[in-house]
Amino acid sequence: MLFMNIEMVAKALKELGHKTRLSIYKQVVKAGQQGISVGDIQEELSIPGSTLSHHISGLSQADLIHQRREGRTLFCIANYQHLEDVIDFLKDECCVGDSIN
């Protein structure tokens, strides 16, 4: 696991805390390593192009997704390692305060 600081985790959680971005991210995660085209996300979620672009930009800036261009098609691919790092950060000290009798 890469070192995750609280600012990085907060940025990721902030982006995922918006229902539209979370819906987009779920579509990207479901697509697997091959990714999903922006057009398919737009069609699936019925989001206007400019709005979708804005939300994808936020997810990308939080390092939750990467983009790949094939010809005229733009694909979004989940950064699964970053997602795992965020989850690990949240779980890292789980239950350390519990006392064992």
Automatic annotation (TrEMBL):
The organism of origin for this protein: Thalassotalea eurytherma
SUPFAM superfamilies: Winged helix' DNA-binding domain
Gene3D superfamilies according to UniProt: Winged helix-like DNA-binding domain superfamily/Winged helix DNA-binding domain
PANTHER family on file: ARSENICAL RESISTANCE OPERON REPRESSOR ARSR-RELATED
Domain of life: Bacteria
Keyword annotations of the record: DNA-binding, Transcription, Transcription regulation
Boundaries of every HTH arsR-type domain copy: 1-98
Lineage: Bacteria, Pseudomonadati, Pseudomonadota, Gammaproteobacteria, Alteromonadales
Record's protein name: Transcriptional regulator
CDD domains documented for this protein: HTH_ARSR
